[in-house]
Amino acid sequence: MARKTAKTKADRVRDLFINLNGTSRQRWEKVNQQGHDFYLDNQLTQDEHETLERQGMPTFTINRIIPIVEMLNFYVTANQPRWQAIGAEGSDIDVANVHADIADYIWYESDGQVKFSQVINDGITKGVGYFKVYADAHSDHGMGEVKIDTIEPFDVFVDPKSRDIFYRDSAYIMVHKVMPQSHLSKLLPEYKTKIKNASAADQGNYNYSQKADGHDFQYKDVEDETFDYFGDEDRKLDYYELYEKVKMPYMNVFYRIEPTQEEVSQIRAQIDMEMEEMQKELNVQAQETILSMNEQLQSGEIIEERYTLEVEKLEKQMEQQIVQAREERMSVAMEAVSRVENNVVSEKEFKVLMKGDLKSKLIDAVKFFDSRIRLTVVVGDTYIYEVVLPGNEYPIIPIHYKWTGTPFPMSAVSPLVGKQQELNKAHQLMVHNASLGSSLRYLYHEGSIDEDYWERYASAPGALLPIRQGFEPPSVIQPAPISTAFANIVELGKTDMEYLAGIYSSMQGDVQTQHDTFKGLMANDEYGTRRVKTWMKNAVEPSLQQLGEVVRDYAQATYKSNKVFRIVEPNNQ
Description:
Mean pLDDT: 82
Number of strands: 13
Low-confidence stretches: 204-222
Shape: elongated
Distance between the termini: 55 Å
Strand content: 15-25%
Number of helices: 18
Structural class: alpha+beta
Radius of gyration: 41 Å
Helix content: 40-55%
């Protein structure tokens, strides 16, 4: 039965991936992959490159996208982010400082600045970059560490119905990769047998070629064959990580904590001292009362039987008063020492605790349902493991460049692709026209000239070019002149790219376009960076805040045992 359940879970994850990798998702990836290719100066396909070479046209490109991306990355990552925890009240200041220090420690140990730069670069060129928070249980000799990493954006598949900028309303988020078996065995050594028995990846369903269509640049050249440590051919396996929000039952438990035996002994000793003082006070009061009644007896106001009866009643009242006072003070002291604790546990843990001492101490228990993130890992067609993660937010945090209200954001490079193609074509045409003007073409009658001689010396200065008798001399074919308006199109295209990206030449140190005065330079910088600041305020900073909250949840769940921390100072020493 367990084996059947595991296979059902694996099949569910694989079917869900097929649905997520639909037409819209593939179209979005293709568009943003093209933008990323243009950023990496891979702006001509293999067919375009071959066509230009056949026509004798130049194949170079003038990449105006790289400096734009680098400047955007600089403005966002110039200052290292830092989380600041704020206490709810004055007594929480020390706890808040601990949270801030732990967050700095995690950021430093994870090379956070490098990861931050990579995420921003992915957001600019691919539309979205992803942080990933996870707990590495094997770090620090098994003590565990919380770490921050990045994910390739095209490996992440989000619920298409999500409409939240952080995907908090998403039913599930999936990470899919195609990885060699030997590498997966190193990543998950405890599941090595399961990975070995898993079926190979279905290359017809999803493979590298969808992410790198063609071999027109070296960074896309992905080998189809992989080899393990011993040189044997290694299989490639589909690796799935399914993160989904599930409602789990929890119990809000209120129970009383009784005082310890030592505390009880201290209370009794204190009350005994108080009772001794009270006993002395009551004895003095009793003696005063007996003396008064003795005077009444001597004066004949009361008879001797009344005197005896009142004395007996007085002694009994004094004893009862002492006993009652002891009980009341003991009850008050025990009530003060005993306290009511409140804890939230899962319903399963609550049932186990009720079989023990909790049943006698329980005051109240309220059942409720809370969202949790469940991670299911599948390799090939084999279910590996399932675990409930800390917190109730996805550990995958996006930073979009231009959020579209859907899981398919727009990059900063996509609007520039058309203009970049226009610039490339304009430069290629102008250079080709100039090349035709310097290397003349001739129209001649076949047999009128020695073709080899003319090809060798036609462009040589002062060359004597013979023609055969009886034939007309070859005529020169002049290239059509390019209009001056064509050159203006090139300059206009450069200006349009700067306008679309919000990064102008003056911001990159171009002295020809800068203002003459320092005040003018500062004004240009202020105006030029407004769009970048808007992106940081509305997208980058909220994402970093979401990242800090997820890091806090993971830190509280991971750092529970004795551990020595190396807290990083502001100067990273």
